[in-house]
Amino acid sequence: MEVHHHKVEKKHFKEYFLEFVMIFLAVTLGFFAEKIRENIANHKREKEYISSYVEDLAGDLITNNVVKPRMMALVANYDSLLDLLKTPASNVNHLYSLVANSNHMWSFVRNDRTILQIKNQGGYSVIRNKQLVNLIILYDETIDTS
Q1: Could you tell me the pTM of the whole model?
Q2: 3 in any annotated domain
Q3: Within a domain: residue 1?
Q4: In sequence order, what are the residues at sequence separation of 6 or more whose Cβ sits closer than 8 angstroms to the Cβ of residue 95?
Q5: Shortest CA distance to 45 belongs to which of 107, 132, 122, 110?
Q6: Lower Cβ count inside 10 Å, N or C end of the chain?
Q7: Are the C-beta atoms of residues 140 and 115 closer than 8 Å to each other?
Q8: Cα 76 to Cα 98: distance, rounded to the nearest angstrom
Q9: DSSP string of 79-123?
């Protein structure tokens, strides 16, 4: 068996340098393209988070508008019940009706799907408006402590 050797011509410095420049440019442009793609994706996620959060707040507002009058009526009912209990000659039928109407407990339950998603996925870093981030965090803390 014969072995054939291929003649390899020696490259000059210019050829090595040209190959280096081409590879360097390709890698650098790849990094730039990846960064641009990442920024576009982050802006898209930011818009999705904000629109979803606005929907959640609109739902919370509707829930609040339903629950608040019921809670105010319940507080008024408790006040009437306390006033009636303070009088010695209380109307028993009125007392029973107030007690029966006082057993409904209404509470505000917020929609926290977006805020949980933002927290779990590190979405605060995607939102560019830091004042908005602070307001979202403040709202979340306020609702959680209520």
Answers
A1: 0.65
A2: no
A3: no
A4: 81, 84, 85
A5: 122
A6: N
A7: yes
A8: 10
A9: HHHHHHHHSSS--HHHHHHHHHHT----------HHHHHHHHTTG
Kindly state the percentage of the chain with pLDDT values over 70: 81
Residue 6 belongs to a domain: no
**CA separation for the pair 101, 41 (Å, rounded):** 53
At CB < 8 A and 24+ separation, what contacts does 126-130 make? Answer: 126/42, 126/45, 126/46, 126/49, 127/46, 127/49, 127/50, 128/46
Enclosing domain of residue 131 = 13-145
Looking at residues 94-123, what average pLDDT do you find? 77
Count of structural domains within the chain: 1
Please tell me the total number of residues recorded for the chain in this structure: 146
Distance CA 96, CA 13 (A): 101
Quick: pLDDT tens for 23-58: 999 999 999 999 999 999 999 999 999 999 999 999
